[in-house]
Amino acid sequence: MQGLMMHNDLLISDLLEHAVTCYGQQLVISRRLDGRIVRHRYEEIAQRSRQLAHALHALQVRPGDRIGTLAWNTHRHLEAYYAISGIGAIVHTINPRLFAQQIEYIIQHAEDRILLVDASFIGLVEQLLPRLPSVEHVIAMTDWKDKPAGERWLCYESLLGEHPPHYNWPRFPTGTASALCYTSGTTGHPKGVLYSHASTLLHAMAACRPDAIGLGPDSVVLPVVPMFHVCAWGVPYAALMAGSRLVLPGAALDGASLAELIETEQCDVLLGVPTVWMGLLAHLRQKNQVIDCMRRVIVGGSAAPLAMIREFDERHGAFVMHAWGMTELSPLGSTNTPTPELLALPKEQRYQRQLSQGRPVFGIQMEIFDDEGQALPHDGKAYGRLKVRGPWVISQYFRSEASAIEQGWFDTGDIASLDAQGYMRIVDRAKDLIKSGGEWISSIELENAALDFPGIKEACVIGIAHPRWDERPLMLVISTDPGLDLQALREHLQAQVARWWLPDDILRVDELPHTATGKLSKMTLREHYAQHYMDPAP
Predict the structure, then answer these.
(1) Which residues are part of the catalytic machinery?
(2) Is 172 helix (H, G, I), strand (E, B) or coil?
(3) What's the start-to-end Cα distance of the chain, in Å?
(4) Cα distance between residue 250 and residue 379, in whole Å
(5) CA dist 237 to 85, 89, 191, 204, Å?
(6) 158 and 19 in one domain?
(7) Longest CA–CA separation in the chain, Å
(8) Looking at the structure, do residues 126 and 140 belong to the same domain, yes or no?
(9) What's the CA gap between 193 and 460, in Å, rounded?
(10) Cα separation of 473 and 504, whole Å?
(11) Are residues 476 and 369 part of one domain?
């Protein structure tokens, strides 16, 4: 027997109109590329989105067309999110930090018909444009006077000025594609993940919940995670759904710029990768500045070190909360929300629990499996391949014939443990685990231990060939201490991990390579140091 309830498709345009109806006077605060702060009410953002929808129709955009964006976190990018999806087209956010060849590949693979481009990336697009046959128009997201010359170039503000602020959004099935994001492509070509209106809105509902990101009308949300990376973790949708004040930082993501924005706008929910927060903390330390408005600092992309968790809490009163996910999960999979039980623990015990990636948000199921496909116990000790399923998890990559799931599960490529309370802890990426003498070593645990040593700014551990043990760990560190004592660092590590885990060598370096999404590029380092332990005199 079926339920007798009304059917109404979940559409992103409905979210925008709901935000206007219920929170029309709420603000979107955006820092332009010239540093100027502009403020728009939700109702103004909606009007400008409708004008852009008219403009795209006038350019003959059809349902299902891919519209690419190369843009920072600004109000114009937010307007494009809603306008493109709202007319049944697909917003394709492009990571400008990828190599030019990768950007060219994904634009061609997606067959983008139109590109929307911030001023920062006009030069890049001008270089690529002769090799992008599918691109009919490029809209410079600038004021009237800043549009480049050329037949294919249009001006964002000019287009909006030609159209009215009212628009009747079309209706279509809730499974219609809404957004396209490509993986970072660390091995092989980037792969496209195609989200739907339903998956996007269900993901936003989950993100708003108090046991997830926890947004409401009283929240002031600062997504430092870029809107070109997994839709800024869904914040452009979740914030408007919850009626939160949304602060968009533009291109200035250094510690000083973020500190000024956080304090001026009194941001209390912050989202970004660890390297961003390291830069913020370093600036605040240098200026002897305390910011007490921060409530939750949500970390994703890679693990937050213990020292960061401790400093945010003890100096600024902010709770560092891990959020785990990936492009294939839209991206939210789990959060380490501050529960009453967690907050009641003594601080050092609580900090250790905060290192976990938390529990799955409602809608996501998790399981760990051994190499034979057998489920492993949830005892916090056994670890295996982490697999997930849920309504915002990928089933197939864009333009791929093959399924991305096996027996109903998506393999994340992570090695993890699960405990009886549902807490998940990432042990390592499967490709980054180090097998030494038949036993496994977690590079993440070694890195976190190193980052708790005074003066260590960044640490990276890789497994490289060893003549006796198959693989052994090599640690590379960046330090702010010119007199860094490597022996003292080794003794510090020995107190925190098993002796046989200790890296055979620790090297001090000036910089470490990162991927386009800010993660350490361990593949590059493994290639560079491949012979380090094999040479007669390393």
Answers:
(1) 183, 328, 435, 440
(2) coil
(3) 72
(4) 44
(5) 12, 17, 23, 6
(6) yes
(7) 76
(8) yes
(9) 29
(10) 6
(11) no
Q: Tell me, yes or no, whether 48 and 138 share the same domain.
A: yes
pLDDT at 538 over 50: no
Domain with 524, as residue range(s), is 434-528
What is the C-alpha separation between 141 and 118, in angstroms, rounded? 5
Residue 519's CATH number: 3.30.300.30
Residue 496 and residue 384 share a domain: no
Indicate whether 294 belongs to any domain: no
- Answer for the pair 268, 294: CB distance below 8 angstroms, yes or no: yes
For the domain that residue 372 is a member of, what is the CATH number? 2.30.38.10
Q: Could you read off the pLDDT of 229-285 as tens digits, one per residue?
A: 999 999 999 999 999 999 999 999 999 999 999 999 999 999 999 989 999 999 999
Q: Is the pLDDT of residue 302 over 90?
A: no
Residues 56 and 201 in one domain: yes
Counted domains in the chain: 3
Q: What is the pLDDT of residues 404-428, one digit of tens each?
A: 999 999 999 999 999 999 999 999 9
User: What ranges in 24-154 are assigned the alpha helix state H?
Assistant: 42-58, 75-86, 100-110, 122-128
Same domain? For 370 and 503 the reply is no
Sheet of strand 296-299: strand arrangement: 37-41, 27-31, 245-248, 220-223, 269-272, 296-299, 319-325, 332-335, 359-360
Instruction: Write the CB contacts of 217 (distance below 8 Å, at least 6 apart in sequence).
Output: 23, 26, 242, 243, 244
**pTM value?**
0.90
pLDDT tens digits for range 204-232: 999 999 999 999 999 999 999 999 999 99
Which structure tokens are listed for 286?
């240098």
Helix (H, G, I), strand (E, B) or coil at 206: helix
Q: Which two tokens stand for residue 258?
A: 């973020």
Say how far apart CA 87 and CA 339 lie, in whole Å: 41
Spatial CB neighbours of 70, under 8 Å, sequence gap ≥ 6:
94, 96, 103, 115, 116, 117, 118, 121, 124, 125, 228
Total residue count of the chain as it appears in this document: 538
